[in-house]
Amino acid sequence: MITIEGLTRVRGRARVLHEVGFTARPGRVTGFLGPNGAGKTSTLRVLLGLDRPQAGRALIDGRRYADLERPLTVAGALLDGSGAHRSRTARAHLRWMAASNGLPKGRVDEVLELVGLAPEAGKRAGKYSLGMSRRLGLAAALLGDPPVLILDEPVNGLDPAGIRWMRAFLRDSAAEGRTVLLSSHLMGELAETADDVVIIDHGTVVADGTLAEVVGEHATLEDAFLARTAGEGASW
Amino acid sequence: MIGAVKAEVSKLVTLPSPAITVALTWAVTVLVRQADPPGGAVPYSQAGVLVLGVLAAGHEYQRGGQIRATLLAVPRRPLLFAAKTVALLVTAGPAVFVAALLAGEPGATGGLLLDLLLAAGVATIVRHPVGATAVVLTAYQIVVPLIRNGLPDVALPPAPVWSAAIIAAAAVTFHRRDA
């Protein structure tokens, strides 16, 4: 369970987040939707203790991420890039991460197998394609078999087969009772995957509910999204 | 804490660049000692030790953004900073001792370890390995000698004071800053 309340973050003179609040429940995929620069990544970075808010709080099962003793067993996160140093092998990267949380070495080979990277585990991360980097990032997120998954644009850089795999994986994770929160700017993708939808625009939550509630009388999630975000698609 | 130290040690020993730096430092020290320069070989070992300290802390911030993975794995920053310091001393300490031995001055080990920690502190603050290398090498090779020669009456604070100040500043920035 992820609980975000009154999250406000200011950077310089720009208001990045303004009283952002929503919950992501176990057993459901919550889609966090918004145009580029709306505050999706900022919200996730605060939730993961990377950035600090000026007000409000973001909790995972009632605790701040930054206070967790073995965070990888509580929440797995996938952010932009794999997080691995370019000259380290994928296996070495996952090994240090496992050691940091007291996880057995054997778990590294399990997650490499799970994301389909086992044959390339000895390659340096800098030699990985974009899709492989994402898989390595996901492997790291799954190391501690966490009940909560937090993923920033998880299908970015994946080929069609990878996208289908990711979608099934996220659905299965929710079916197992995990809390899945994923951000995306791809409506079609979210309409296929999410149970609940939160829409953020200019740092403020503008819609929050089940997929059916958020779509409402609009024909598609995309229509609902553009109506809620004042159709800014034309501005670029 | 033990897990965090193990992880940091593992990161340092599975990265090629620190190992290469140690090998080069030893080689340069041996070669320079043959030439028997007036100041001894230690100042040359020192340059390698500074690079080693910068790489150990600065590799987190190179392309790839490993620092985020690090903070996701160990989000408690004071503990992480302590684990990093311990891991650096445990892994690089013996290598630095060997460099001092090769320079013929095993007694220089303590001073070199202070240089190592200072360089790691600068890299933590600067978050850019090349920039941090430029800062420490300029300070050690140019600024300090200039002050020593130009203003012989000015008493510079001793090395432990410098190192302690930089490490404290690095710990505070590391704790406060958004990653």
TrEMBL record, chain A:
> Which residue ranges does the record assign to the ABC transporter domain?
2-227
The record's section on SMART domains has: AAA
Taxonomic superkingdom: Bacteria
Tell me the Gene3D superfamilies matching this sequence. P-loop containing nucleotide triphosphate hydrolases
Whether DNA repair counts among this entry's keywords is: no
Q: Is the keyword Isomerase assigned to this protein?
A: no
From the Swiss-Prot or TrEMBL record, what is one GO molecular function term?
ATP hydrolysis activity
Q: Which PANTHER family match?
A: ABC TRANSPORTER, ATP-BINDING PROTEIN (PTHR43335:SF4)
Which family, according to UniProt? Belongs to the ABC transporter superfamily.
Q: What is this protein called?
A: ABC-2 type transport system ATP-binding protein
List the source organism: Actinoplanes xinjiangensis
From TrEMBL, chain B:
What superkingdom heads the lineage?
Answer: Bacteria
Which keywords belong to this entry?
Membrane, Transmembrane, Transmembrane helix
Entry annotated with the keyword Transmembrane helix: yes
State whether keyword Transmembrane applies: yes
Membrane spanning stretches: 12-35, 41-58, 79-102
Q: What is this protein called?
A: ABC-2 family transporter
* Species of provenance: Actinoplanes xinjiangensis
